[in-house]
Amino acid sequence: MPVRFNCRHTALLFSLIVIWGGVSHAEEPTKAPGFRQLVQTRQRALMQEVIAYVQQNPGAADAEAARHWILETALTSGLEDLALSTAAARLSNPVLDADAANLTRRVQCLGLAKSGQIPEALGSFDELLRGARFQAATRTLDFAHQLSVQARLNGDLEASRAVYERLVAAFPINPVIAEIAETRVAKIGLIGKPSPPFSATDIKGEAVELSQFSDKVLILDFWATNCPPCLEELPQLKALHEEFHPHGLEIVGVSLDERVSDVEEFKTRRQLPWRMVMNEQPAGRLQTDFRVVTIPSLFVIDQKGNVVNVDLYGGNLRAAVAKLLPIKE
Questions:
Q1: What pLDDT was estimated at residue 243?
Q2: pTM of this prediction?
Q3: What's the pLDDT score for residue 25?
Q4: 199-324 belongs to which homologous superfamily?
Q5: Is residue 117 helix, strand or coil?
Q6: Taking the CB of residue 247, how many other CB atoms lie within 10 A of it?
Q7: Degrees (nearest 5) of the Cα angle 55, 154, 72?
Q8: 231-237 contacts, C-beta under 8 A, 24 or more apart
Q9: What are the C-alpha distances in Å from 325 to residues 29, 63, 150, 241?
Q10: Which of the 8 DSSP states describes residue 292?
Q11: Residue 184: closest CA among 141, 229, 133
């Protein structure tokens, strides 16, 4: 007799996932082993078990509840590639309501991208955008960022830009979307090229030049002490710095705060070990050359001074750094 799907037996594990601070970014954990890796491993195994249950019992009374759980869990845990078959089967339902279709299409879109099927992912994104004008624009913008990142991780910069071109076309009278999309495309345009010139004075009064980081991997992090998404990323950056600094990683924070004292106090209280500079410099705002309009904005610069990627976080950022600074066991 097959085991029935029971939402209650997943409640504790799902609660742990929600508590996990990095879940909103749907990206891989930064460091293992530990609590995050344990939850990720268990979550993957449980998803595979529930997927198998649905495949074996497609007509069960609770099969649709199981499919919904699979898709929601995939999207919140960064496991969209595991749920591709579930998404495809659900989209074939001619009476699927709009909210369910939206969730399913998001999972399919990211799952295809993570599987390296970028043209198919863009096609799925086009379908998603057909109903986008009836959704919150910021939600669709956030999703576009995730898809654009996946395209870049697959080495497809053209597709990464195309995501934002499609987004603007879907919101033709929204100037905010147009401006943000334009600046993000401009940042993508920096990838593979020498970093914009960088010359500043840090909060201790010492000069900071890009040339100081030759043969180092540099993360340039534009942030502010009153930016919640920026602060959410700090534990990840601290863990990354601790792991890779001995092997050649440097981080420079560029604060958009108005007062140096706020940054000094925050840096001390949060024990941030990397150097900080203010965005406002005598020669102008540092954010201008880096096309920064929204924060957090982050740039990965390699040992030769070239921008290799932008706006990566969580496991995606760690993977990019590890590729540039492989640690020999």
A1: 92
A2: 0.79
A3: 44
A4: Glutaredoxin (3.40.30.10)
A5: coil
A6: 15
A7: 35
A8: 232/21, 232/24, 233/296, 233/298, 233/313, 234/270, 234/272, 235/21, 236/22, 236/30, 236/313, 236/314, 236/317, 236/318
A9: 18, 46, 21, 12
A10: -
A11: 141
Which amino acid is present at 280?
E
The rounded distance, in Å, linking the Cα atoms of 240 and 184 is 24
Which CATH code, of 1.10.10, 1.10.287, 2.60.40, 1.25.40, is assigned to 7-188? 1.25.40
Amino acid at 293: V
Helical axes 314-324 vs 228-244, angle rounded to 10°: 30
Q: How far apart are CA 248 and CA 321, in angstroms?
A: 10
Q: Which sequence spans correspond to the domains of the chain?
A: 7-188, 199-324
Confidence at residue 283, expressed as pLDDT on a 0 to 100 scale: 67
How many other β-carbons are positioned within 10 Å of the β-carbon of residue 74? 27
List the chain residues with pLDDT less than 70.
1-36, 132-135, 283, 328-329
Instruction: Write b or e for each residue in 83-94: b if 16 or more Cβ atoms lie within 10 A of its Cβ, otherwise e.
Output: bbebbeebbeee
Residue 209 in 3-state DSSP? Answer: strand
